[in-house]
């Protein structure tokens, strides 16, 4: 039918309907397997019908720059379009592809119809021998997916419009079939994937069409009951299982259907072996358009072993907690039992040391005290480690002076470093905050542990402590500490186990140097709790550098301690020290003062510097001399300078080791002051300020050589002390230590007796043992607080051998004011006694001085004569104690209404009598009470009391 007339076209149209019907019928049962075969047969039928030589279908690949023949047909003895089916480059035929994309069909009756720009296409047609061609685009939802080509090679034909129309309809049908097959393949792939996943899933999966009927299941669910999928799918529960199993499953299903929403529950049921298994079932309803449940999809995990493991774990947890409680109780008891005899050992050694002993006996006592200190440190390490292990170690959050904590920690090791001939340096960044918030005792513990190791493992050289500071956001101080020594060092393989519990670098160090091996482990935990980290660098036989950082909240920034030097100009200070590190430290502490610093390393250079600068702006005002300079010693240098007329005015400060210097001898050589090493910055600044006349000498701080001595400016007979202690040894030590300082005390043998004595006598301070017969210290304190409700508050200090976490809180909660542990540090005891004497002194107001200071001004302002004014003042003084006590009680009980009432009364009476300083503070107190700011009220009341003590 290459060239039909009109009659032939009609016949052709009828035959075409038969052709289309044949193709439609053929594709009724098309699937992904038979599609290609049916398509090839259809192309053959179309080619024979239209008497064509060959037909082909191209489809574009996922990469649209490539295409590939999907199916082709050709007459016998006609070459196929492509002998080898493979990807072809789309733009090998640029003109043709443009036409396909832009037109509904491309007709070529003969090759002469190719335009000039169809060079590649013309070449291909000539090579293949194509005479004429019709090409129709194939689309899926208006997206071009390929094209179908109809060709003649034996002769040229003229494509009629009716032919084109018919073949276009055929291509549309083939487009539809292709889209259907594509979707079918995608769906089959999805189903196959889902089937693989479902049947290989470890979890059980099934779908229910109603309470008692399965829709589908996976292999895992079928295998659980020892069945196949086909045994369960589309079956009723009661046709599959025994009655008990079916009832249990249907009850479970009914509950899940009733929920009508995603649900989760546990189901106990027997498997095919008859074993009770626990399934965790999760369900999700699948609903139709009306909102009715079409399917209920369920998944299940067998959690039997998990529950058994959890039960075992819980049992182990309970046993561990019980063991932990028992361990904590054991530790608390051991702490008490060990510390009680340790208190006796320390106390009697201290008493023995203060008696008349021979040199040999004093040496014995010193060694016994040293051994006792070591034992106590071991006990403390073990207790700390136990607290950390039990997660019961809690850090304090209090404001403390950072520099003081660092310097105090270093000071502890001065005697040992002097004994071993080791240099000890402290370099502290001058900009560090004055006060931070944290746990000072634990920070000091870290430092002392690292310093102790440095001293222990260093026999020559030096130990240096460097502290730097960086401020982070939100007023957080990042403090970095470096402890460097020139000791035995640590090998690389041993560094790895250095911070592990009960470890030292190697076993031989334990034998030689002793120790528990817990110190660094405890340090690491403490540093971690302070939001920091600790590291170490070390070289064997060269030394070690321990570095750690902590983060602490800034409470008070670097003070204006150096502002006092703003009053002076052109002050030059000469530092004479042959140790460069020591010179640099001294110099750094004077940084920012405005003082001009000159450093020299010997006596000769010092003398020449003083003489050469005498008539210049660098004239020396103060010389700081290290006591052990070589050549001419410090005393000879001082005497020489005092004999030089131009140097007589210079103030000399001796920098000496605490245990080596003799300041009385130094004064004879012309020294005006002395400072001990390791040098403390504030001591240095105070000393220089005194020598420059910027501070009075009595303001200068010198450390008391005997910390246990109460200052003699107070009458010790004024203090009333009660000791409540049942242990005879502890009583004897306590009484003897007080007696050695000229203090006496009353004694109670148990809490009940302590309660009676306090109710009968007026004591200033009670030292209360916590564990006593009849009535313990906690109960006795609570009773004392109850009966003294309208009496003076008695200061009660807990004395206990318990040192576990929570013990101090228990003491404070029972009403005690303070807390000390055994073995007792009597330095702390005497400090508490001193504070009580000071409090007692301050609590006695000299009311007559109020009259003397203010009555004349009041009389002058009011016009009253002195006698009338005196009467008013006497009434004020008579009411004042009750008024102040009322304010104190109101603050203690947090009764802000009562506080405002008393503050208002004090404000009015003080203002009337022209006691303006008290009046202003009372006005502030009244305001803060109304604002309910209790802390500020307490602070203001302290200022009011101070004013009355000073009036």
TrEMBL record:
<keyword id="KW-0418">Kinase</keyword>
<keyword id="KW-0547">Nucleotide-binding</keyword>
<feature type="domain" description="HPt">
    <location>
        <begin position="865"/>
        <end position="951"/>
    </location>
</feature>
<dbReference type="Pfam" id="PF01590">
    <property type="entry name" value="GAF"/>
</dbReference>
<dbReference type="InterPro" id="IPR000014">
    <property type="entry name" value="PAS"/>
</dbReference>
<feature type="domain" description="Histidine kinase">
    <location>
        <begin position="333"/>
        <end position="554"/>
    </location>
</feature>
<keyword id="KW-0597">Phosphoprotein</keyword>
<dbReference type="GO" id="GO:0005524">
    <property type="term" value="F:ATP binding"/>
</dbReference>
<dbReference type="Pfam" id="PF01627">
    <property type="entry name" value="Hpt"/>
</dbReference>
<dbReference type="InterPro" id="IPR036097">
    <property type="entry name" value="HisK_dim/P_sf"/>
</dbReference>
<dbReference type="GO" id="GO:0005886">
    <property type="term" value="C:plasma membrane"/>
</dbReference>
<dbReference type="Pfam" id="PF00072">
    <property type="entry name" value="Response_reg"/>
</dbReference>
<dbReference type="InterPro" id="IPR003661">
    <property type="entry name" value="HisK_dim/P_dom"/>
</dbReference>
<comment type="subunit">
    <text>At low DSF concentrations, interacts with RpfF.</text>
</comment>
<dbReference type="InterPro" id="IPR000700">
    <property type="entry name" value="PAS-assoc_C"/>
</dbReference>
<dbReference type="GO" id="GO:0000155">
    <property type="term" value="F:phosphorelay sensor kinase activity"/>
</dbReference>
<dbReference type="InterPro" id="IPR005467">
    <property type="entry name" value="His_kinase_dom"/>
</dbReference>
<dbReference type="InterPro" id="IPR035965">
    <property type="entry name" value="PAS-like_dom_sf"/>
</dbReference>
<dbReference type="InterPro" id="IPR004358">
    <property type="entry name" value="Sig_transdc_His_kin-like_C"/>
</dbReference>
<keyword id="KW-0067">ATP-binding</keyword>
<dbReference type="InterPro" id="IPR001610">
    <property type="entry name" value="PAC"/>
</dbReference>
<feature type="domain" description="PAC">
    <location>
        <begin position="263"/>
        <end position="315"/>
    </location>
</feature>
<dbReference type="InterPro" id="IPR003594">
    <property type="entry name" value="HATPase_dom"/>
</dbReference>
<comment type="similarity">
    <text>In the N-terminal section; belongs to the phytochrome family.</text>
</comment>
<protein>
    <recommendedName>
        <fullName>Circadian input-output histidine kinase CikA</fullName>
        <ecNumber>2.7.13.3</ecNumber>
    </recommendedName>
</protein>
<dbReference type="InterPro" id="IPR003018">
    <property type="entry name" value="GAF"/>
</dbReference>
<dbReference type="InterPro" id="IPR036890">
    <property type="entry name" value="HATPase_C_sf"/>
</dbReference>
<dbReference type="InterPro" id="IPR001789">
    <property type="entry name" value="Sig_transdc_resp-reg_receiver"/>
</dbReference>
<dbReference type="Pfam" id="PF02518">
    <property type="entry name" value="HATPase_c"/>
</dbReference>
<keyword id="KW-0808">Transferase</keyword>
<dbReference type="Pfam" id="PF00512">
    <property type="entry name" value="HisKA"/>
</dbReference>
<dbReference type="Pfam" id="PF13426">
    <property type="entry name" value="PAS_9"/>
</dbReference>
<comment type="function">
    <text>May play the central regulatory role in sporulation. It may be an element of the effector pathway responsible for the activation of sporulation genes in response to nutritional stress. Spo0A may act in concert with spo0H (a sigma factor) to control the expression of some genes that are critical to the sporulation process.</text>
</comment>
<feature type="modified residue" description="Phosphohistidine">
    <location>
        <position position="904"/>
    </location>
</feature>
<feature type="modified residue" description="4-aspartylphosphate">
    <location>
        <position position="769"/>
    </location>
</feature>
<dbReference type="InterPro" id="IPR036641">
    <property type="entry name" value="HPT_dom_sf"/>
</dbReference>
<dbReference type="InterPro" id="IPR008207">
    <property type="entry name" value="Sig_transdc_His_kin_Hpt_dom"/>
</dbReference>
<dbReference type="InterPro" id="IPR029016">
    <property type="entry name" value="GAF-like_dom_sf"/>
</dbReference>
<feature type="domain" description="Response regulatory">
    <location>
        <begin position="572"/>
        <end position="692"/>
    </location>
</feature>
<feature type="domain" description="Response regulatory">
    <location>
        <begin position="720"/>
        <end position="837"/>
    </location>
</feature>
<keyword id="KW-0902">Two-component regulatory system</keyword>
<dbReference type="InterPro" id="IPR011006">
    <property type="entry name" value="CheY-like_superfamily"/>
</dbReference>
